[in-house]
Amino acid sequence: MIGIRQHIEQRVTAKGKTLKLFADDPVIGKYRFSALVTDLDLPAVVIWRTYRGRADCENRIKELKYDFAADSFSMKNFWATEATLNVVMLAYNLMSLLRQVLLKTSATKCPSNSVQHTLQTLRYKLFAKPAYITTESRKPILNLALAMQQRAWMQGLWDASKTFDLPAKFSPIYSP
Question: Mind listing the pLDDT tens digit for each residue in 91-137?
Fold first, then answer.
C-alpha cells in the first residue's frame, strides 16, 4: 500500500480527501491524502506516476457507455457480441483519432482555450447533417445544410483533413 500526501496550496487540483478528524490541525489540514493498493514491487514514486496516468480511464469507459451505447448491446451468440464490440471499439478509435488529428485535441490533454467535445457531440456536429446531391456540369455536388456559424468550423476541418499527419508512423514489413 502506498500513501500519498499532496499539499493543497501547491497542488490546488490535488485528488484525495482531507482528513475530517484532523481538519483543525494546522499541519495535517493543509494536505490531501489518498492511497494506492498494489502488488507491484517498484518504488512508490514510480507506482504513483504510473497509476496517475491511468486515472482518466473511467472517463473513456463512460464515453463508450453513453456516446457509443457500449452497454446496451447483447446478442444471443457470443461471437456476434464480440463482433459488435469490435465494431464499436473501431468506431471509438476512429473518432478519437479524428479528434486528435483534425481537432488537435485529445481526451486527456485538452488545451485550455479549446472546446473539448464529447464523441457524441462530434457525431452530431459532423455526421448528422442534412444534405442533398445536385449536379453541375455533369458533376455530382454534395450540398450540406449548415448554419452560418458552423460553416467556418466545418471548412477548417476540410482544410485540415487535406494536410494532416498521423500521430504514429506505420511501415509495412515484408516477409518473403
Answer: 888 888 888 777 775 555 555 556 667 777 887 888 888 888 999 99
Pure H helices in the chain: 44-53, 57-67, 78-101, 119-126, 148-162
- Residue entry with cell 457509443: 68
CA distances from 82 to 5, 65, 73, 78, 152 (A): 42, 16, 10, 6, 40
In the block, cell 449536379 appears at: 135
Closest listed residue to residue 117, CA positions, set 164, 150, 161, 72? 150
Distance between CA 146 and CA 154 in Å, rounded? 9
Confidence (pTM): 0.54
Per the listing, cell 512508490 goes with 44
The rounded distance, in Å, linking the Cα atoms of 53 and 47 is 10
